[in-house]
Amino acid sequence: MAQDWKSFEPLLIPDIPNLEKIDVYEENGGYDALKEILNDQETWSRKSVVEEVKQANIRGRGGAGFNAGLKWSFMPDPDGGPRYLACNGDESEPGTFKDRKIFEYNPHLFIEGALIASYAMTVDTIYVYIRGEYLSWVEMLQDAVDDAYEKGYLGDDILGTDVSIDMELTYGAGAYICGEETAMLESLEGKRGYPRTKPPFPAQNGLWGRPTTINNIETLANVPLVINNGADWYGDIGAEEHPGPVLYGISGHVNRPGVYEYPTGVPVMDLINDVAGGIRGGKDLKAIIPGGSSTPPLRADQLDGVTMNSDSLKDVGSMMGTAGMVVMDEDTDMVEVLWRIAHFYSHESCGQCTPCRDGTGWLEKVLKKIKDGEGEMKDLDLLLDIGNQMEGRTICALADAAVWPVRHTINRFRDEFEERCKKSVHAVA
Amino acid sequence: MADLSFTEEELEEIERLKDKFPTAKAATLRVLWLAQNKYGHVKDEVQRLVAETLDLPKAHVHGVARFYTQYYKEEKGKFVLDVCTCLSCQLCGGYDILHHLEDELDIEAGETTDDGMFTINEVECLGACGYAPMLQVTNGVYVNNLTKEKVDKLIKNLRNGNMPEFESMAMPELEKRNQAASE
Ligand SMILES: Cc1cc2nc3c(=O)[nH]c(=O)nc-3n(C[C@H](O)[C@H](O)[C@H](O)COP(=O)(O)O)c2cc1C
Ligand code: SF4
Ligand code: FES
């Protein structure tokens, strides 16, 4: 796979004008996967759809990379009561801006994927939760949903079968934490977005106490591809342990930032130089954050041969996350960057757990002190220590997400942090 | 303040919002939005109206209104400029844009101009990192790839009552295709 990414033809957002219109989507094979399943439910039993998707190994695109089909298989057997699919369009992890491309350019692919998922899990109601700031994109998706209802792909007795599925869109009102899946459920129930303690897991006890599965928007957009072409075909795209097309969001100091679709496993340096047009102003690369603000940064000298997939990134001590890659040039001040990340997590902590609420606050405070030239050498160890006290001791993963960048930025750019502390007013000659 | 109330039409819309969910409580966020769009904020008296309309405890609605940053718990300027200074925007000059706005409007982030026209806020990532630096106008339109000149023009247009248009940020690959097609 090393080189052939260049000839890849986009699948999630193919090069077809007006694909957001339902007629154009249909003309290009849209809703065929749904039709095939619903018209031949003997071949495509609910279980066999789950099995096919599990085989394909679509790794969740919301950040955690969990096998989607495997997650679906955790839903208990139907008992006649309501069952939900909650689609996560909260997209608030700094560096991440790809799901809205699906709403804008190929909303029906997502709707079709959500419908297939709902059939597979015997779900009757789909909720799509979109961040409140994305109002323009909520409207775009609503137009597509209205058209899908009109054409009989949504609602009662879909395509004349006895399958009935509804889709409701709603949106938040500004809170990063509502992207955490159980906080999203709370918000959907009309409450503050406080993450829930697990267990019980949403598959057992989700929305209004009923079985619920949560998937990211891009994850669901991959589903029709698998049904149309088969799990084996899908598994051959990109990196073996993490297959499929990915919407890479590239931002920061590159010449052509934006969202690009390529398979998993593209070499990081190719993404920066060939895809995103290289570093602005002809400068040198200093570091990247591979997949959203919580994924540990990597120095340029760590990137030799590293590709954008979970195993390769893990080998060098980072993660794939949301594939929202932030690129930093040689003049970037890592102390400023880390302080700003810490500020984000402190601002967004929901405050339920003491180690997170206080810890994120302290991380920010100490980093601000260092950034303002008032830090001492021992503050660096203090930061690492605060992090160790937070990790794994909280209800949700926001605390961990706040700790990782602190730990790894300090360790990987230690000289820069020490330099800043040496110069400070507290330093003793 | 005089007693607040929803019109017949608004109450119908609220019924429709309630129908989206199995409980009335679930409609809290949406009805707060509706109320904010009407009154420009969700101060105490508006929260009370929402609570009464949905037949929910005032404390619940208050808690929700406070939790989410897009709800205005105080009156804001006619145009609220939410400037992103988070990670990618920071790297691409988001703070320069924020400070330029503060200088031009002679207020600091979090404040409103004396004439009630503008409020500036510094906000977290708005999911437009590839088009940094950027800002959002009053929970609505995104204005991307900001320069000082673009900001000045925006301010001028807003003063004249002209809202910016939706900017579709094409996928760079699609952009290339469209360019080729038009040549
Ligand atoms: C603090 C926090 C924020 C998150 N934000 C998002 C988000 O904005 N969008 C998203 O899809 N997943 C987000 N996640 C991950 C979700 O909890 C969940 O794993 C995901 O939506 C599951 O979908 P997937 O398996 O299809 O990726 C977040 C997780 C945490 C801990
Ligand atoms: S870890 Fe932080 S964000 Fe998550 S529930 Fe606890 S306090 Fe809230
Ligand atoms: S960092 Fe500003 S939009 Fe994401």
UniProtKB/TrEMBL annotation, chain A:
Coiled-coil ranges per UniProt: none
Keywords linked to the UniProt accession: 4Fe-4S, Flavoprotein, FMN, Iron, Iron-sulfur, Metal-binding, NAD, Oxidoreductase, Quinone, Translocase
InterPro entries (UniProt xref): ComplexI_51kDa_subunit (IPR050837), NADH-UbQ_OxRdtase_51kDa_CS (IPR001949), NADH-UbQ_OxRdtase_suF (IPR011537), Nuo51_FMN-bd (IPR011538), Nuo51_FMN-bd_sf (IPR037225), Nuop51_4Fe4S-bd (IPR019575), Nuop51_4Fe4S-bd_sf (IPR037207), SLBB_dom (IPR054765)
UniProt GO BP: cellular respiration
Keyword Zinc-finger (UniProt): no
Cofactor annotation: FMN; [4Fe-4S] cluster
PROSITE patterns reported in the protein's UniProt record: COMPLEX1_51K_1, COMPLEX1_51K_2
SMART domains recorded: NADH_4Fe-4S
Enzyme's top EC category: translocase
EC number: 7.1.1.-
A GO molecular function held by the record: NADH dehydrogenase (ubiquinone) activity
Recorded catalytic activity of this chain's protein: a quinone + NADH + 5 H(+)(in) = a quinol + NAD(+) + 4 H(+)(out)
NADH-ubiquinone oxidoreductase 51kDa subunit iron-sulphur binding domain residues: 335-380
Pfam families reported in the protein's UniProt record: Complex1_51K (PF01512), NADH_4Fe-4S (PF10589), SLBB_2 (PF22461)
Function of the molecule: NDH-1 shuttles electrons from NADH, via FMN and iron-sulfur (Fe-S) centers, to quinones in the respiratory chain.
Family according to the record: Belongs to the complex I 51 kDa subunit family.
PANTHER family: NADH DEHYDROGENASE [UBIQUINONE] FLAVOPROTEIN 1, MITOCHONDRIAL (PTHR11780:SF10), NADH-UBIQUINONE OXIDOREDUCTASE FLAVOPROTEIN 1 NDUFV1 (PTHR11780)
Name used for this protein in its record: NADH-quinone oxidoreductase subunit F
UniProt source species: Fodinibius salipaludis
Source species taxonomy: Bacteria, Pseudomonadati, Balneolota, Balneolia, Balneolales
Automatic annotation (TrEMBL), chain B:
Cofactor: how and how many bound: Binds 1 [2Fe-2S] cluster.
Keyword terms: 2Fe-2S, Iron, Iron-sulfur, Metal-binding
The UniProt record lists the keyword Iron: yes
UniProt-recorded Gene Ontology molecular function terms: 2 iron, 2 sulfur cluster binding; metal ion binding; NADH dehydrogenase activity
Pfam families associated with the record: 2Fe-2S_thioredx
InterPro entries: NuoE-like, NuoE_dom, NuoE_N, Thioredoxin-like_sf
Cofactors: [2Fe-2S] cluster
Binding-site positions, [2Fe-2S] cluster: C84, C89, C125, C129
Family (UniProt): Belongs to the complex I 24 kDa subunit family.
NCBIfam families per UniProt: nuoE_fam
Protein name, per record: NAD(P)H-dependent oxidoreductase subunit E
Source organism (scientific name): Fodinibius salipaludis
